[in-house]
Write a structure and sequence with these properties.
globular, 12 strands, binds pyridoxal-5'-phosphate, alpha/beta, 414 residues, three-stranded antiparallel β-sheet, 14 helices, seven-stranded mixed β-sheet
C-alpha cells in the first residue's frame, strides 16, 4: 500500500502539470534570460510569465516579485536587506527589530546574525495557542525600530498570526513589516496589499513547486540592499543567473492554486476537522495544539503523553504514514520544538508531539488509515514502555530485597 503522506508542511509532491511545465526549460529552452538572442528571450518571457503568475496568487504586481533561492533566502534578504538599508540611511543609529519567539529558523537565525552585528532584536512571546498579542508587539516598538517580522502562519502548529492587525498598528510609522508567508501560501487566501505588509517571503516547494526557488515580494517604494552581489538580475536585488526551470515550475504551481483558491482550503479544513475528531476519539489522552479556527486548514499538531515522538514517527513510517516531529528543519535533531516551548508546553510534552500536515490531494480514506495506524502504534509504544517501567521496577525491588541478585535483575530489566 502506498505511504500516506501527511508531511506537506515539510514539502509537497510536485504535480505532473508542474513537471511538464518545467521540463522544456531543462532541455530545448536552455537559454539564459539575460542573453539578447531568441533562445535567451524565450527564457526571459518564461521568467516574466512566472512572475505574473506568482504576483496574481498573492494580489501583488509583477514588478513587486523578486525570485530567490527559496523561503530561507527570501527571509534573509528581507531582514538583512532592510537593516543594511537602515544602516546606510542612519549610520549613527542602532537599528531595532521586533519579531516573535515562534518564527521559522530562517528568521530567528537571521536575527541572531543581526544581533552579532550590533542590531537590537526583541522577540515577543505568544499565548498558549501560539498567537502573538498585537498590543504586546506594539509595546515592544522603540524609536529605533525599523523592521517588524511576523509570520503569517506557523509551520509547526499552523497558528495564524494577526498580521493585518499589526499592519494597522504600524500605519503611519516608518517601520517595515515583513511576513514569512511560506506556509500560508496555498492554504489560505492571500492578498498582500489588503494585509498591509511591505515584504512577503514565499517558497515554491510548499505548494507543489520545485525545491530551491522562492520569491520575496517587495511592496513598491520599499528599498532594501541586495545580499547576493553580481549581475543585475532581478533588477539588482538578487544577482545570479535565474533558475529558469524552477521559476517556471513555481509560476505554474501558483497558477494551479489560483484556479481553485477556496475549494482546496475548504476540502482540507473539512478533512482535517474529521481527522482531529477521530484522533481525539480513538487515541487516549491525545491533545491537539493551537486554537480551532485560528490555524492553517491542513496542520494538526498532536501531543501524545508518554510517547517519544521520534519513535512514533519512525514506527508510523514503517507502518506506512509519513509525518514529522515538529518542523522538518528541526527533525534529525533531538531539540524539542521552540514553538511548542514558547506556547508553554513542557519539554516532555514537546518531545511527545507530532505534526501531521495534509495536502490538497489527501483523501478521507488515507486519513482513516492514518488514524488506525496511529492508534495501533501509540498503544504498542505505550505497552512497550509500561512493560519497560514494570521491568525496571521489578529490578529495583529485587535489588532492595537481595543485593546479590541486583545485577541479574537489572540485566533482565533491560
Ligand atoms: C514558515 C517557513 N519559513 C521558511 C521556510 C524555509 O523555506 P525553504 O525551505 O524554501 O528555504 C520554511 C520551510 O520549512 C517554513 O516552514
Amino acid at each position: 500500500m502506498p505511504t500516506v503522506y501527511l508531511d506537506h508542511n515539510a514539502t509537497s509532491p510536485v504535480p505532473p502539470e508542474v513537471v511538464s511545465a518545467m521540463v522544456p526549460y531543462l532541455g530545448e529552452h536552455y537559454g539564459n534570460p539575460s542573453s539578447t538572442h531568441r533562445l535567451g528571450q524565450h527564457a526571459r518571457l518564461a521568467v516574466d510569465n512566472a512572475r505574473r503568475q506568482v504576483a496574481r496568487v498573492v494580489g501583488a504586481d509583477a514588478t513587486e516579485v523578486f525570485f530567490v533561492g527559496g523561503g530561507t533566502e527570501a527571509n534573509n534578504l528581507a531582514l538583512r536587506g532592510i537593516i543594511d538599508r537602515a544602516r546606510l540611511l542612519r549610520p549613527a543609529r542602532r537599528p531595532h527589530v521586533v519579531t516573535t519567539a515562534v518564527e521559522h529558523p530562517a528568521v530567528l537565525a537571521a536575527c541572531e546574525r543581526l544581533e552579532a552585528r550590533d542590531v537590537a532584536v526583541t522577540r515577543v512571546g505568544v499565548d498558549s495557542s501560539g498567537r502573538v498579542e498585537p498590543g504586546q508587539l506594539e509595546r515592544a516598538l522603540t524609536d529605533e525600530t525599523v523592521l517588524v517580522s511576523l509570520m503569517l502562519a506557523n509551520n509547526d502548529v499552523g497558528t495564524l498570526q494577526p498580521v493585518a492587525e499589526v499592519a494597522q498598528r504600524l500605519a503611519g510609522r516608518n517601520i517595515v513589516l515583513h511576513t514569512d508567508a511560506v506556509q500560508a501560501l496555498g492554504k489560505m487566501p492571500l492578498d498582500l496589499h489588503a494585509l498591509g505588509v511591505d515584504l512577503v517571503a514565499l517558497s515554491a516547494h510548499k505548494i507543489g513547486g520545485p525545491k530551491g526557488v522562492g520569491a520575496l515580494v517587495v511592496r513598491r517604494g520599499v528599498e532594501l540592499e541586495a545580499q547576493i552581489c553580481g549581475g543585475a538580475q532581478e533588477r539588482g536585488r538578487r544577482a545570479g543567473t535565474e533558475n529558469v526551470a524552477g521559476i517556471v515550475g513555481f509560476g505554474r504551481a501558483c497558477e494551479l492554486i489560483g484556479a481553485d483558491p477556496t475549494g482546496r482550503v475548504e476540502t482540507m479544513q473539512r478533512l482535517r476537522r474529521r481527522f482531529e475528531r477521530d484522533i481525539l476519539d480513538r487515541v487516549p489522552d491525545a491533545r491537539i495544539n493551537g486554537a480551532q479556527g485560528l490555524r492553517l486548514p491542513n496542520t494538526t499538531s498532536v501531543t501524545l503523553p508518554d510517547i517519544d515522538a521520534q519513535a512514533l514517527v519512525m514506527n508510523l513510517d514503517l507502518a506506512g504514514v509519513a509525518c514529522s516531529v515538529g518542523s522538518a528543519c528541526a527533525s534529525g535533531r533531538v531539540d524539542p520544538s521552540h514553538v511548542l516551548l514558547a506556547m508553554g508546553l513542557t519539554e516532555a510534552e514537546a518531545r511527545a508531539t507530532v505534526r501531521f500536515s495534509l495536502g490538497p490531494q489527501t483523501t478521507a480514506q488515507e486519513l482513516r488509515r492514518a488514524v488506525e495506524l496511529l492508534q495501533e502504534t501509540v498503544s504498542m509504544l505505550r505497552a512497550l514502555s509500561a512493560e519497560h517501567d514494570e521491568r525496571v521496577r521489578y529490578g529495583r525491588e529485587a535489588r532492595s530485597v537481595d543485593p546479590s541478585t541486583s545485577n541479574s535483575a537489572l540485566t533482565d530489566g533491560r
